[in-house]
Specification:
alpha/beta, three-stranded antiparallel beta sheet, three-stranded parallel beta sheet, 13 helices, 10 strands, extended
Length: 330
């Protein structure tokens, strides 16, 4: 049943006063005067700021809407049986290691997303370098193989195990040598696995090779001090630092650990205490360490040896030969 009742919002509307009629015209936004603006008369006139903003907003909105494409649909499938330790939206953490660095890995629903230094590593706390931070990206590399491959043909792991075992048995039976090539291995678990493999195949030899090797440092310490080790430096306790081509704030040995030590002895507290380390850097190419040095001396690679001999002679009073330097080094 249709109602004949009529309602008013106020006395102004009921009496239809001139003020109400004028204000009612601006109750809703007026249509954009596109045709009036684009005609010859409109282009020759001054455009009000409000009209300009209206046209600009409409244009940006229209272009954005026209550029939109159908977004891919990603379906989120809930757990049928949820693991007890996994809560969607709340990250989990676990401890691991990378190139001798103790790291803390942040995961979400089983997917590693961030690597940080392990704060509970104690004496093994070294921080994380750029390689450790970027290593998580390898897990999401779309160009990686999705499955094992044998002779350019995709296979499964059972076939790979069968093929490798057969080839190893043939090499062992024929007296051929077997080599395991890897980077330096410090993990006791990995060493135990390699040892068990060597027992099963006595012709095996483990060859360790690193793209960035510290063999020279190890040999030098063995010749000088009788111990084949990589030394551990304490830059926070040094009053004078002299470096020859060692980018210890960047990529040399443990840059993150050395940086924390280096800064602790060169901050405002050290300056206030009147004791701040002095740093001299001799290097052929610009490095992060060189840019932070108090004095940076550019030298050729061929001059590093003579510069070291000259410094040794100055400290010890010896007179070793070979300490002649160029004119650019004093």
């Amino acid at each position: 049943m249709e109602s004949n009742k009529k309602y008013w919002k106020g006395l102004e509307e009921y009496k239809n006063t001139p003020d109400f009629v004028e204000n009612n015209k601006n109750e809703f936004a007026e249509p954009l005067p596109i045709e009036d603006v684009l005609n010859e008369a409109g282009l020759s006139t001054v455009t009000p700021r409000r009209d300009f903003l209206k046209a600009l907003g409409f244009g940006l909105g229209a272009v954005t809407l026209a550029a939109c494409q159908t977004a891919p649909v990603h379906k989120s499938i809930p757990y049928l049986i949820k693991p007890e330790e996994v809560v969607p939206g709340i990250p989990n953490y676990y401890v691991s290691s990378f190139n001798g660095q103790s790291v803390l890995v942040k995961t979400r629903e089983g997917r590693p997303i961030k690597i940080e230094p392990n704060p509970n590593a104690g004496t093994f706390f070294r921080g994380t370098d750029a390689q450790a931070q970027a290593s998580v990206l390898d897990l999401y590399d779309v160009s990686k193989l999705k499955a094992p491959v044998i002779k350019d043909a995709e296979a499964n792991w059972a076939k790979v195990d069968e093929f490798v075992t057969g080839e190893l048995n043939k090499a062992q039976a024929s007296g051929k040598k077997i080599r395991i090539v890897s980077s330096s291995v410090s993990s006791p678990s990995s060493k135990a696995v390699i040892a068990d493999f060597t027992v099963a195949y006595p012709n095996t030899k483990h060859v360790q090779y690193d793209a960035i090797s510290y063999t020279g440092i190890i040999k030098a310490n063995e010749n000088s001090f009788g111990k084949p080790v990589v030394p551990k430096y304490n830059f926070d306790k040094a009053d004078l630092i002299v470096s020859f081509g060692a980018d210890f704030l960047g990529t040399w040995i443990s840059g993150e650990e050395f940086t924390a030590q280096y800064v602790s002895n060169r901050d405002a507290k050290s300056l206030k205490a009147g004791k701040m380390s002095r740093h001299f850097q001799f290097e052929a190419g610009m490095s992060l360490t060189g840019t932070n040095a108090d004095t940076r001396v550019p030298i050729r690679l061929s001059e590093e040896g003579p510069a070291l001999i000259t410094l040794y002679n100055a400290i010890t009073g010896a007179n070793l030969a070979g300490g002649t330097l160029g004119n650019n080094v004093t």
